[in-house]
């Protein structure tokens, strides 16, 4: 693919110079949802799908962007002195946001760039196409300008740009997974300290199957930001009765003991999810490490119920997919994954049940919604990287 993209790059922007190729993956979160901005744990893994970027430094301060996915927009020209978000800028708000965030942190960009990108993450699926584009941009800047930034810092810069340039108050999970992913491993990340460990995902006779509902309810970002605010308000109330910094500091027992300090029933359920989901994630990783996949699956199912009933980030299409999955023999666990309000489910399915799974969910979903779900039997890939071999042609 990158050869074809390089060819396209030359066709658009001309020959010569130091042309480099990069990749940053999307992610799927196995468990630990809406815990990353609540000081809890998450357990995502990088996918082998993601965003590719071909880049070359310019002599001047111009920026030229082109996306194969949005080819009708053509080449979009702007400059390093115009790093402001705008609706008209479409997808380029993501790379521009990262450039802006680098500058905010004192990494001054001396020259502009020509950039071509292409991604194979289905649009709006909640598999972090935007985070992958942010991390890709961060890596390109690090590598091309020689900035001394770690991959963790690139993840943080990506999150900062999404929060402050693109208006979504997301946590660190997506950017971290894209920057730090490791083949065949999930990342057990403590979002409170950013301490992390890789955990091999050994499913022996099972596979990870992502089901795309292809629905994306409007107001996703604002509903997400609302959840975040509600959790923060509940934390403030709890802080009056116990000495904690985040909801991730509480055990289930602590929560039950102090929950009456939260003055509102909705906020109580939001906080309950954050606390219980964090503990579930810790237990799920232990289960996986000790080879107890069945327990891992049960915890995934509990995670779904908690997001459906307490955190209320599911929707009827996603609930349908999960309920259909739970009925299929050979399904170890199934839940909503990602930010919610549509997007995808993640399921662990016995290898010999995958075909039945796809058939059953596909036809059940079609019958009840009139829509076609999409299925991806995925592998866990590496985090963002540059392709080793040079693609320069004189
Ligand atoms: C989105 C956000 C993440 C995380 C998840 C929910 O993907 O970008 O930071 O909060 O939702 O777990």
Automatic annotation (TrEMBL):
Pathway: Carbohydrate metabolism; galactose metabolism. ATP binds at residues 67, 124-130. Its main location: cytoplasm. GO terms for biological process: galactose metabolic process. It is found in: Cytoplasm. Residues 7-56 form the Galactokinase N-terminal domain. PROSITE patterns: GALACTOKINASE (PS00106), GHMP_KINASES_ATP (PS00627). InterPro entries: Galactokinase (IPR000705), Galactokinase_bac (IPR022963), Galactokinase_CS (IPR019741), GalKase_N (IPR019539), GHMP_kinase_C_dom (IPR013750), GHMP_kinase_C_sf (IPR036554), GHMP_kinase_N_dom (IPR006204), GHMP_knse_ATP-bd_CS (IPR006203). It is an enzyme of class 2 (transferase). Belongs to the GHMP kinase family. GalK subfamily. Catalyzes the transfer of the gamma-phosphate of ATP to D-galactose to form alpha-D-galactose-1-phosphate (Gal-1-P). This is Galactokinase. It comes from [Clostridium] hylemonae DSM 15053.
């Amino acid at each position: 693919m990158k050869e074809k993209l390089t060819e396209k790059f030359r066709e658009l922007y001309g020959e010569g110079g130091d042309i480099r190729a990069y990749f940053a993956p999307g992610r799927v979160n196995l468990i630990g949802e809406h815990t990353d901005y609540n000081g809890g744990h998450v357990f995502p893994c990088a996918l082998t799908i993601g965003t590719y970027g071909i880049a070359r430094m310019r002599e001047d301060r111009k920026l030229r962007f082109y996306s194969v996915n949005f080819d009708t927009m053509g080449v979009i020209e702007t400059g390093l002195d115009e790093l402001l978000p705008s609706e008209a800028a479409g997808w380029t708000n993501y790379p521009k946001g990262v450039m802006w965030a680098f500058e905010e942190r004192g990494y001054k960009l001396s020259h502009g760039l020509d950039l071509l990108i292409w991604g194979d993450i289905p649009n709006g699926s909640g598999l972090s196409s935007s985070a992958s584009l942010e991390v890709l941009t961060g890596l390109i800047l690090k590598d091309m300008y020689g900035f001394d930034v770690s991959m963790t810092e690139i993840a943080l810069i990506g999150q900062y740009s999404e929060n402050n340039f693109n208006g979504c108050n997301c946590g660190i999970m997506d950017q971290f997974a894209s920057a730090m992913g490791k083949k065949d491993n999930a990342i057990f990340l403590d979002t409170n300290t950013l301490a992390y460990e890789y955990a091999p995902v050994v499913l022996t006779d099972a596979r990870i199957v992502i089901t795309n509902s292809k629905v994306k309810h409007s107001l996703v970002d604002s509903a997400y930001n609302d959840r975040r605010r509600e959790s923060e308000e509940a934390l403030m109330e709890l802080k009056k009765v116990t000495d904690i910094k985040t909801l991730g500091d509480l055990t289930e027992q602590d929560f039950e003991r102090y929950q009456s300090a939260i003055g509102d029933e909705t906020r109580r359920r939001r906080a309950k999810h954050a606390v219980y989901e964090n503990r579930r994630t810790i237990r799920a990783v232990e289960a996986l490490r000790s080879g107890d996949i069945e327990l891992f699956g049960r915890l995934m199912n509990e995670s779904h119920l908690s997001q459906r009933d307490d955190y209320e980030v599911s929707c009827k299409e996603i609930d349908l997919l999960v309920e259909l999955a739970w009925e299929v023999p050979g399904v170890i666990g199934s839940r909503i994954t990602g930010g919610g309000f549509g997007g995808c489910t993640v399921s662990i399915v016995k290898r010999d049940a995958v075909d039945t799974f796809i058939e059953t969910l596909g036809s059940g979903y079609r019958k009840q919604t009139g829509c076609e779900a999409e299925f991806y039997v995925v592998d866990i890939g590496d985090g963002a990287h540059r392709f080793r071999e040079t693609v320069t042609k004189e």
